[in-house]
Amino acid sequence: MRAIIARAVPEAVESVKWNAPSFATAEHFATFHLRAKSGVQLVLHRGARPARVLDMRDLLGADAQLLEWKSPDRAVLTVRDAAHLATLRVSLGRLVRAWATHVE
Asked: What is the structure's pLDDT at 50?
């Protein structure tokens, strides 16, 4: 998953935020939830304190249906296993690339 994100958003910097791997451009936008009960979760967000609320569901197209929405600008992608990740590879790249363009 980390390699897919790095390829999709090459300008992103990976670091540890909230005790988990996280990616940032102007602000952090993707953070792993490592203690999920099943699979690996990637939390997509717009930083700790986004300047404004933005309804990301309207900006992601059909790939938005892959996410579990926690708020208009915070969603979770759960990857069950390696086979599931293989089916999501292209969509995950599109999702994080589109999401990162809306980080302020």
From this structure: 60
